[in-house]
Amino acid sequence: MKNICILGATGSIGTQALEVIASCEELKLHSFSYHRNDALADDIVQRYGPCRAVRTSDPSCNTSEMLLSLVEDPEVDIVLHAVTGTLGIKAAISALRAGKTLALANKETLVAAGDLVMRENTDKLIPVDSEHSAIYQCLGCSLSNPDLDGIVLTASGGPFRHLSEEVIASKRAEDALKHPNWNMGRKISIDSATMMNKGLEIIEAMHLFGLSPDLIEVVVHPESIIHSMVRFRDGSLIAELSRPSMKQPIALALTGQKRMPISRLRFSELRALTFEEPDPVRFPCLALAVEAARAGGIIPAVMNAANEVAVEAYLAHRIGFYDISRIVERTMDCTTNQSLSCLEQLEEQIARAKECAALSMRAFIQ
Ligand code: MG
Question: How far is Cα 109 from Cα 218, in angstroms, rounded to an integer?
C-alpha cells in the first residue's frame, strides 16, 4: 500500500488523481491540501477517509508550515504536487529532501526554481505534465540517457491556432477557455491560448532532462496524440502516443510505472497526425519563453511572475490578449539578470517582477 499526499486536491489534476486512487487498490489518499473549495474537500474526506486535510487560503494559519508538515509526514510515500506559487517550490524541495517520490504536476516550480530543485537528489522525481511524462517514458522511465540528443515537444496550438492575428487580438478570456483537446484549469487554458504554456514546458524540460534550449524543438500537433518525442544521437526518434488524458501520466507516476488500463487508442480510428511550425508572430509568448530559457538565472522566474499577473488581468477582462505578451516583455526588459542562489532571493525577485508587471499593465488597462 502506498500513502499519497495530494497538494491541490480540488483542482483539475487533483481530482483526476483521486479517480486514479479510487481505481487502484494499492494506493491510499493519506492527506491533501486544497485552496478554498470546501464542498469538494468535504466530499473528498467522506469518500477517501484521509488522515489530514489542509485549507491553504486560510489567512489565520501558517500555510507554508502546514504544507511542509503534510509533505514531511513519515507515513507519506508519494507527494503529488499540483500547487502553484513559491509555496509550491518549498514543498517540492522538502519532499525530495524527505526522500518522498515527488510526482510533479506544477510546472512553475521548475520554471522559477529549476536551478534550486535540480540541485537536490532527483532520483524520485517523476514528471506528470503530459509532454514531460512522454519524454520520461521514451527514456525508459528515466530523466537522462547518454545518447539523448534532443527532444520534440508537441503543442496542440490552443483554441486560436487557426485564427489571424487581428481576430486573436479581439478574443476574450471565455473564448480562450474552450480548449479543443484538454480540459484544464483557467490559468493553464489561457497559457495554452497564448502558447506560453509550451514556453513554460521548454524551460521545465530544459531542467528535467538537462538539455540546452537549442536542443528542444516545438512542433504544433493539433490532434494531441503524440505527447512528445525524444531524439537519440543516431537520429532515431521515439514517441509516446495515447489519447489526451492526464490520468495516464498521473497513474504512471503514482503506481511507480505500473500500467493501469486507462484508455485504448485504435489506429484505425485516427484519420491523420499532422504537424506545423509554431508561429512566433501570432504567439509571441513562445519566443519570449525561449529567450528566457536561454538567459537562465532569474529571468524565467520573472517571466513566469509577469505572466501570472497579466493572465489574471486578462481573465478579469482588464486587458486584451496581446497585452499579456507586452507586459511579460516589458517586465523582462526592465530586469537585470542574476544567477539564482536561494529561495529568499527568488521570492524577492518574483515580488519585484509582479510589481513591475502591475506597473506596466497600467498602460493597457481598458
Ligand atoms: Mg502539458
Answer: 21
The distance from CA 15 to its chain's CA centroid, rounded to whole angstroms, is 16
pLDDT (tens digit per residue) in 114-162: 999 999 999 999 999 999 999 999 999 999 999 999 999 999 999 999 9
Pick from 54, 56, 47, 64: nearest CA to 31:
54
Query: Going by C-beta distance under 8 Å and a sequence separation of 6 or more, which residues neighbour residue 229?
Result: 134, 135, 138, 151, 152, 154, 237, 238, 239, 240
CA of 3 to the centre of ligand 1 (A): 26
Nearest to 328 by CA among 300, 359, 306: 306
Which grid coordinates are listed for 342? 536561494
- Select from 14, 60, 62 the least CA-distant residue to 34: 14
Q: For residue 228, give the amino acid letter.
A: S
Query: In 3D, which of 133, 277, 145 has the Cα closest to residue 205?
Result: 133
| Ligand 1 center from residue 75 Cα (angstroms) | 30
Closest CA to 15 of 36, 55, 43: 43
Q: Is the pTM of this model over 0.90?
A: yes
Would you state the cell numbers that stand for residue 264, as one nine-digit string? 485504448
Q: How far is the CA of 228 from the centre of ligand 1 (A)?
A: 10
C-beta of residue 296 within 8 angstroms of C-beta of residue 332: no
Asked if residue 338 lies in contact with residue 297, where contact means CB atoms within 8 angstroms, the answer is yes
**What angle do helix axes 299-315 and 107-117 make, rounded to 10 degrees?**
160
How far is residue 318's CA from residue 178's CA, in Å, rounded to a whole number?
19
What pLDDT sits at residue 179? Answer: 64
Rounded to the nearest angstrom, the distance between the alpha carbon of 284 and the centre of ligand 1 is 18
Helix (H) or strand (E) holding 32: strand 27-34
User: Left, alpha or beta for 49 (phi > 0: left; psi -120 to 50: alpha)?
Assistant: left
pLDDT of residue 182: 60
Own/partner long-range contacts of 65-68 (Cβ < 8 Å, ≥24 apart):
66/33, 67/7, 67/33, 67/91, 68/94
